[in-house]
Amino acid sequence: MHTLLVTGGAGFIGSNFVRYVSAHAPHIRMIVLDALTYAGNIANLDGVKNVEFVHGSITDEKLVDSLMSRVDTVVHFAAESHNDRAITQPRIFFETNVMGTLILLQAAVKYDVRFHHISTDEVFGDTALDSTEKFTESSSYKPSSPYAASKAASDHMVRAWVRTYGLRATISNCSNNYGPFQHIEKFIPRAITNALCGLPIKLYGDGLAVRDWIHVEDQCSAIWEILQNGHIGQTYLVGANCTINNAHVVNMLEEILPQYCGEQKITVEHVRDRLGADRRYALDPHKIVEELGWKAKHTDFRKGLSQTVEWYANHQDWWEAYKPDVERSYANLGQ
Ligand SMILES: NC(=O)c1ccc[n+]([C@@H]2O[C@H](COP(=O)([O-])OP(=O)(O)OC[C@H]3O[C@@H](n4cnc5c(N)ncnc54)[C@H](O)[C@@H]3O)[C@@H](O)[C@H]2O)c1
User: Fold this and answer.
1) Whose CA is closest to 104, among 75, 82, 70, 147?
2) Known EC number(s) (predicted)?
């Protein structure tokens, strides 16, 4: 691997991955292709060396063709990624997540480029709250939301391109990420920034929905491991065995946040849940651990959460300009 195309590299996980590669393999040249939608931020790449930034869309065939001809590997993060938006604006999710992936796959076949596709555990749907089931690589696809359906479609396409065209591809399905540079529309950064602004932390529904959390740096090290040693045609589930319900995450935040909030009281408000919300995600990362020897480093969730709170408290200039718009959009949804 000498030249890497990173789609969506100005988003949350993409920019963390670019930083990870830059730190661990400085000899690799990276091209970031990002449309800089509301979720992308060029400032996420400030100070990173060995990166060429291209402002454009994965749905632009000519642009994708020319970039693909210059690289030997692509890691495909670019997506519309927010479940709540997918409910009100599903079309853009299919244009980006499905049609954009199609354009990338065709160009990757043309230039015989190694392809790694980033996906989500949400393709498997959910399990009951009292279940102990964990998703594995052989769990059936049962997406419940428009976002998950679009990601499921893209996973199927990658597998079809491996079988039909001999594309050298792998897939990783990851659980919920947290850490620096995550857009403040998402649950944990929204909760932190609400508290820092003196607004109530919003908790969806009864707060009992369970998510399986992984620190974004662990997600990046897993992708890196797959690029080095993953087997072509294989899928790897990436998780850190950290299932916690949302109310519990909020309780931890209530304990961590006071030192950053001065006199402001931290309050919590229950808001209506999103339509069709999944109850519980849990995934089994055995395969990547056993086959590739990958291990999560951030196994203490509370510590990772404290570091994340500290990051948002110290990077107010990164998020405060967007805060009113994000809260206005949620208010329109009654959340
Ligand atoms: N965040 C999570 O917890 C999580 C968990 C599992 C999987 N994933 C997957 O990881 C990937 C990255 O997620 P994220 O949380 O970093 O998302 P994000 O929304 O923070 O970033 C997405 C990036 O893609 C860019 N983008 C959107 N449309 C584009 C287009 N047409 N062309 C080029 N760039 C475009 C955006 O500008 C943004 O920079 C996604 O594929 C998502 O499905 C995310």
Assistant:
1) 75
2) 4.2.1.46
Residue 54 φ/ψ, nearest 5 degrees = -120, 120
Q: How many CB atoms lie within 10 A of CB 221?
A: 20
Q: What is the pLDDT of residues 311-328, one digit of tens each?
A: 999 999 999 999 999 999
Which tokens is 75 given? 């890691």
At 220-269, the pLDDT tens digits run 999 999 999 999 999 999 999 999 999 999 999 999 999 999 888 999 99
Looking up tokens 């989500």 gives 120
Are 7 and 33 spatial neighbours (Cβ–Cβ below 8 Å)? yes
What tens digit of pLDDT does each residue of 72-81 get?
A: 999 999 999 9
Atom number in ligand 1 closest to CA 36: 37
Tokens of 220: 């990046």
Q: Is residue 302 domain-resident?
A: no
Which of the residues are catalytic? 121-122, 147
Q: What is the pLDDT of residues 114-162, one digit of tens each?
A: 999 999 999 999 999 999 999 999 999 999 999 999 999 999 999 999 9
Q: Are strands 268-271 and 201-204 parallel, antiparallel or unpaired?
A: parallel
Q: Are 272 and 205 in contact (CB under 8 A)?
A: yes
Tell whether 252 is covered by a domain.
Answer: no
* Residue 142 resides in a domain: yes
39 lines ligand 1 (CB under 6 A): yes
Task: Give the closest residue (by CA) to ligand 1 atom 28.
Answer: 79
Report whether residue 13 contacts ligand 1, using a CB cutoff of 6 Å: yes
Does ligand 1 come within 6 angstroms of the Cβ of 240? Answer: no
Domain holding 107: CATH number?
3.40.50.720
As for how many domains the chain has, the answer is 1
C-alpha 187/C-alpha 184 separation (Å) is 8
User: Which residue segment(s) compose the domain that 233 sits in?
Assistant: 3-178+214-238
